[in-house]
Each structure stands twice: as structure tokens, then as C-alpha cells.
Amino acid sequence: MKQKLRKLFSPILNIFESGTDPFIYKPSHRTILVIMGFLFSGLAVLVFFLAQGKDPGYLFPVVIFGGAGFLSLLIGFLGTDRAVSKIWGSR
Description:
Elements: H1 2-8, H2 10-17, H3 27-50, H4 59-78, H5 81-88
């Protein structure tokens, strides 16, 4: 299942997994990335339900936080060690 999802999201994952530079990876970075992904996604859902029906400008933070949460969860669960270290800027 993981390989099918990696193939589906390969255009996004390839951006973060490319390169041959040395990198520093710590397992705690992946854990923190997944936690941040859940926090950003939860924040996006919370804003969506609390501000629904008001000014349509509320969709801007929903898209930003939802995108950040989705990307964090995608890299955290499906990305390689290089992708996680690239998110953290570890070189």
C-alpha cells in the first residue's frame, strides 16, 4: 500500500527526495514533522468549521494550514530520510 501511495504522490515527493548532497537525519525529526502535520491539519479543520458561512476570506488560512499539514503528513509518512532532512534544512 505504501508503494502505491508513493507512486501516486511521486511528483511531490521527488522534489524533496532529489539531490546527492550529504544530509543529517534524526528519527525525532520525522516524529516532530508528523505531529506538526496533525496540528496544522487540525487547525485548518477548526478554522473551516468555526468561520463557515462568514466572509469567504476564511478559506485562505484553511488552504495555507491545510496544505502545510498535508505536506507535513505526506513527507512524514511516505517520504525518505532525505526528504525529511530537506524539510528541516539539515545539510
